[in-house]
Design brief:
It contains three helices and ten strands, in the order H-H-E-E-E-E-E-E-E-E-E-H-E. By secondary structure, it is α+β, with helices and mostly antiparallel strands. It has an eight-stranded antiparallel barrel. Strand 8 and strand 9 form a beta hairpin.
Length: about 170
């Protein structure tokens, strides 16, 4: 059993980004919150990545959230239209573990919806570990006022806005 656990930890560590990437992109001493406005059924569908807290270039990917009507949700990243990135496109299973909180049923990190606007058009996602922070929108274009509101949510949750990068087409 100890060998299996050690192998699993090694496999997870091997998936971590290498190079100069920080292990966290947020100040983890700042409490993080998830949105009580989150509604899984309304959140389901395609979301375009608009901007991300990242030390790297941000691709214009689309993330599909599929809700099964219970507590299960799957998350699938698709390349943006015209993108030739080689993504496997396999859905990752999650379960709803709290308001706006999704816990992976495998080795993937959790996803928290930190904020979503009233009409579920724009959202901010991240996680307590600070491994990512993203602004996502139902369409690739995002109005400036909603972008500012989303950026403030990232800042409130301990993310450094100097690392906020818009997607690259």
């Amino acid at each position: 059993m100890k060998r299996a656990v050690a192998a699993l930890l090694l496999a997870i560590a091997a998936c971590a980004p290498s190079g100069d990437a920080p292990s966290t992109l947020r100040d983890v001493s700042v409490p993080i919150t998830s949105s009580t406005r989150f509604d899984a059924a309304r959140f389901a569908g395609d979301w375009h990545l608009v901007a991300a807290i990242s030390p790297f270039a941000v691709p214009a990917d689309v993330t599909r959230f599929s809700f099964d009507g219970t507590e299960r949700i799957s998350v699938q990243t698709l390349p943006a239209e015209g993108d030739t990135a080689d993504l496997d496109g396999q859905p990752v299973p999650y379960r709803l573990s709290g308001p706006g909180q999704m816990t992976a049923l495998g080795a993937a990190l959790p996803i928290w919806v930190l904020w979503v606007d009233e009409d579920h058009r724009t959202a901010v996602i991240g996680n307590p570990q600070g491994s990512f922070g993203q602004i996502i929108n139902r369409t690739p274009a995002l109005r400036a006022d909603r972008f500012r509101a989303a950026a403030e949510v990232l800042k409130f949750n301990g993310y450094d806005l100097r690392e906020l990068k818009a997607v690259t087409p």
